[in-house]
From TrEMBL:
InterPro entries: Ac_CoA_lig (IPR011904), ACAS_N (IPR032387), AMP-bd_C (IPR025110), AMP-bd_C_sf (IPR045851), AMP-binding_CS (IPR020845), AMP-dep_synth/lig_dom (IPR000873), ANL_N_sf (IPR042099)
Keyword ATP-binding: yes
EC number(s) stated in the UniProt entry for this protein: 6.2.1.1
Domain Acetyl-coenzyme A synthetase N-terminal: 27-85
Listed name of the protein: Acetyl-coenzyme A synthetase
Function as written in the Swiss-Prot or TrEMBL entry: Catalyzes the conversion of acetate into acetyl-CoA (AcCoA), an essential intermediate at the junction of anabolic and catabolic pathways. AcsA undergoes a two-step reaction. In the first half reaction, AcsA combines acetate with ATP to form acetyl-adenylate (AcAMP) intermediate. In the second half reaction, it can then transfer the acetyl group from AcAMP to the sulfhydryl group of CoA, forming the product AcCoA.
Gene field: acsA
Family listed: Belongs to the ATP-dependent AMP-binding enzyme family.
A single GO BP: acetyl-CoA biosynthetic process from acetate
UniProtKB keywords: Acetylation, ATP-binding, Ligase, Magnesium, Metal-binding, Nucleotide-binding
Length: 653
């Protein structure tokens, strides 16, 4: 039986409902209010959840019309994000732990950083930035692992009004250089080396390599984290910890406009180079705080653990900004789920008595593959809510999570959202929504999803619908623009379906109005919950001297969700070999990072193209999926025989 068409339903328990912030009725009333009168709804939320230096008089000014797209919230309000995440909590919870840092090596001992300590560290870090000449509006690239300094650096930027752009520490020097150059950063912050799963990544030397391609004015701030030896360039490199010890322990906040950018985060799209997604100070923070509290039913005193990396949006919103704005205790984990062994996640939960745990389906599948013995040995009784994010969760993984981690008793929130949306968009609220495994269920407050017919672009009115997912109205956490390219912003998100925000996912809505995300409908693939533009991998491949042409598609992968399948046409005089295959894998690793390494490379003497020279990816996808029985119409191909050749030599047999 197809689970999706007749799924088991999991209502919240009465005990849970009794203590929850939002129950089913409240959800309905509040949701209705948020859609019918967004101005009052969000005005009220912004006043109660955030502290303003000057309050706003205007709540919303948004337009999705192509050519004049504009998204503004609380426009004339003035606030400071770091103040909201730290200073305002000092009186009441100065001695409460703000951040628990759990290092890669379990034997190294955790750190508990109180709000008061966080305040001092962030102030000192901010003074270091100021001493480097960083001013309001300047860009600061943060290329750090999951260490407290990453949080200090982000909040220090927010304190002085600089715009941070965190680059995932798994990215290569080239990827780092592209981002530093695109946002014209004044400073890059890195660490000597980064331990992860018992191995070390040489971040400083990656940064040195990246900076060869950047302006020589870029300063390099180095956090000496492991003490490993690195090269040192006088006049360019700065020892952050040494300087933090010298500067003043206090630093005034800079009042910022609600619409001033808080950060830029680069993300992959279906075309071109990664885009710098710009998020605001006021609207973003409000949305981060509200979703963190309500989606996870966070209560004062709880320990919250989002297992993402700060290099992704999930880490921004649910390790740093959301929890800290709410005065929560947030856990930062430097390691990986399988080191020293596959019980690490569960050990960390037991050790720190974690109440809410948020991870990705790919991590669940990887741990599932190790059997249940690793989870059985840990005391998970502190857990109250489980969450997932990043990709659709398959029922097997959902059931495993539910049975073994939730012991059949905990609500699981499957949260659909994107880098662009700032926070959760479609998600259960644990005290309000009965869940169905594999469905992200219902919209969050203020979010108006619609299902559009993919070809006509018309809204499907019936409850039961299948098509592409779009959003009708702005919400405060929405991205504001693409850094330096507003036209690209409009074109990417508002031009395919006029009047709506569209960001590339397909979906189904069932008879109960529940949403089921079916995956990307564009040339973006989702590898272990990480977004990867196929165009990016292709351009890395063709940059290799022996490659004439390349086409990249996704294919189903048991653990990663999707794997990367590359069809490569070599230059005329080049012979294919296993060594060359390895060389290309290493090449892509170096060009982009390990997450972009192709899983399968097929030598393709020719690619299926239309007579106008367009590669027919639909066909390549089918072959990669081993589903070539249904190739559809191939009559428009310039040379249909290439298809037989590709099928014959396919890699995914
Ligand atoms: C937060 C984040 C966004 C893309 C998105 C969609 C996929 C995320 C999902 C999900 C199904 C979920 N996605 N959450 N698909 N169910 N609960 O992941 O941001 O890295 O920008 O990726 O991830 O395809 O469009 P980002």
């Amino acid at each position: 039986m197809n689970e999706a068409s007749n799924p088991k339903i999991y209502p919240p328990s009465n005990d849970f409902v009794a203590k929850a912030h939002v129950g089913a009725e409240t959800y309905e009333t509040m949701y209705k209010a948020s859609i019918e009168d967004p101005e009052s709804f969000w005005g009220e939320q912004a006043k109660t959840r955030l502290d303003w230096i000057e309050s706003f008089t205007k709540v919303k000014d948004a337009d999705f019309t192509l050519g004049k797209v504009k998204i503004k919230w609380f426009e004339d309000g003035v606030l400071n994000v770091a103040y909201n995440c730290i200073d305002r909590h000092l009186e009441e919870r100065g001695d409460q732990t703000a951040i628990i840092f759990e290092p890669d090596e379990p034997g190294d001992g955790a750190q508990h950083i109180t709000y008061r300590e966080l305040h001092e560290k962030v102030c000192r870090f901010a003074n270091v930035l100021l001493a480097q000449g960083v001013m309001r509006g300047d860009r600061v690239v943060i290329y750090l692992p999951m260490i407290p300094e990453a949080a200090y650096a982000m909040l220090a930027c927010a304190r002085i009004g600089a715009i941070h752009s965190v680059v995932f520490a798994g990215f290569s020097p080239d990827a780092l250089a592209n981002r530093i150059n695109d946002c014209q950063a004044k400073v890059v912050i890195t660490a000597d080396t980064a331990p992860r799963g018992g191995r070390r990544t040489a971040l400083k030397s990656n940064t040195d390599a990246a900076l060869l391609h950047c302006s020589d004015k870029v300063r390099c701030l180095v956090v000496k984290h492991t003490g490993d030896q690195t090269t040192w360039i006088q006049d360019r490199d700065v020892d952050v910890k040494a300087m933090m010890a010298e500067v003043a322990p206090d630093c005034p906040i800079r009042p910022m406009g609600a619409e001033d950018p808080l950060f830029i985060l680069y993300t992959s799209g279906s075309t071109g180079k990664p885009k710098g997604v710009v998020h605001s100070s006021g609207g973003y923070l409000l949305y981060a705080a509200m979703t963190q509290e309500l989606t996870f039913d966070y209560h004062d005193g709880d320990v919250f653990w989002c297992g993402a990396d700060v290099g992704w949006v999930t880490g921004h919103t649910y390790i740093i900004y959301g929890p800290l704005a709410n005065g929560a205790t947030t856990l930062m984990f430097e390691g990986v789920p399988t080191y020293p062994d596959a019980s690490r996640f569960w050990q960390v939960i037991e050790k720190h008595k974690v109440n809410q745990f948020y991870t990705a389906p790919t991590a669940i599948r990887a741990l599932m593959g190790q059997g249940t013995k690793f989870v059985e040995g840990s005391d998970l009784s502190s857990l109250k809510v489980l969450g997932t994010v990043g990709e659709p969760i398959n029922p097997e993984a959902w059931n495993w999570y539910n049975d073994n981690v939730g012991k059949g008793k905990l609500p699981i929130v499957d949260t659909w959202w994107q880098t662009e949306t700032g926070g959760h968009m479609i998600t259960p609220l644990p005290g309000a929504t009965a869940t169905k495994p594999g469905s992200a269920t219902k919209p969050f407050f203020g979010v108006q999803p619609v299902v559009l017919d993919a070809t006509s672009g018309k809204e499907i009115e019936e409850t039961q619908a299948e098509g592409v997912l779009a959003i009708k109205q702005s919400w405060p956490g929405q991205m504001r623009t693409v850094w330096g390219d507003h036209e690209r912003f409009e074109k990417t998100y508002f031009s395919d379906y006029k009047g709506y925000y569209f960001a590339g996912d397909g979906c189904r809505r069932d008879a109960d109005g529940y949403y089921w995300i079916t995956g990307r409908v564009d040339d973006v693939i989702n590898v272990s919950g990480h977004r990867m533009g196929t165009a990016e991998v292709e351009s890395a491949l063709v940059a290799h001297a022996k490659v004439a042409e390349a086409a990249v598609v996704g294919y189903p992968h048991e653990v990663k969700g999707q794997g990367i399948y590359a069809y490569v046409t070599l230059m005329n005089d080049v012979e294919p070999s296993d060594e060359l295959r390895k060389e290309l894998e290493g090449w892509v690793r170096n060009e982009i990072g390990p997450i972009a390494k192709p899983d399968l490379i097929q030598w393709a003497p020719g690619l299926p193209k239309t007579r106008s020279g367009k590669i027919m990816r639909r066909i390549l996808r089918k072959i990669a999926e081993n589903d070539y029985g249904a190739l559809g119409d191939t009559s428009t191909l310039a040379d249909p025989s290439v298809v037989d050749e590709l099928i014959e030599n396919r890699m995914n047999k």
